[in-house]
Specification:
Alpha-Beta Plaits; two-stranded antiparallel ribbon; 4 helices; about 170 residues; 4-stranded antiparallel beta sheet; alpha+beta
Length: about 170
């Protein structure tokens, strides 16, 4: 079942399930969305309407790990990445040493150069040691299939009534 973005999947009926959120608080799901933006919009609307949002939560379910491959890693790319990281480390260390040596500029330049060379060597050697077992770079994120807007049980009726205004306004 596909749920339109920004539209709640569940109705705001009084029979919404109660779940445990936190150690001693029970929460009621007042709406479910297919994307985070829809759930965020609902909580923002509750806030705009004066609802005490500190009693609400956005709970993701049906979690999936998504690893997006962003490119191939070669020894050259590893060395380039390491060199840039080394420049930053050398700059930081160089600034500290330069201050300790009363503003000696040559110390800063040497520290940056050593950092760049050291970083390039370190990254390229560690990449070569993997022997091709992971020749790609990626970014991982956890995404949810559904996002449930929940509120503390004592606030559910007020939250449902307030969200009904949002559903009526967007129709």
């Amino acid at each position: 079942m596909t749920i339109p973005s920004g539209s709640p999947e569940t109705s705001t009926s009084p029979s919404a399930p109660t779940t445990s959120v936190g150690a001693a608080t029970s929460a009621v799901t007042i709406a479910t969305y297919s994307d985070y933006a829809g759930a965020q919009k609902a909580v923002d609307f509750l806030s705009d309407e004066g609802f005490p949002v500190q009693h609400s939560a956005i709970v993701g379910s049906d979690l999936h790990l998504v690893e997006r491959v962003v490119g191939r890693v070669t020894v050259f790319r590893a060395a380039l990445t390491g060199g840039v990281a080394g420049i930053w480390f050398g700059l930081l260390l160089g600034l500290i040493l330069s201050i300790a040596n009363h503003g000696e500029g040559a110390v800063l330049g040497v520290a940056i150069l050593i950092g760049a060379i050291g970083g390039a060597l370190y990254y390229s050697i560690t990449h070569a040691l993997t022997r091709g077992t992971r020749d790609f770079a990626s970014r991982s994120e956890i995404v949810a299939g559904r996002y449930h807007v929940t509120v503390a049980a004592g606030y559910s009726d007020r939250a449902k009534a307030t969200l009904a205004k949002l559903s009526g306004a967007s129709s």
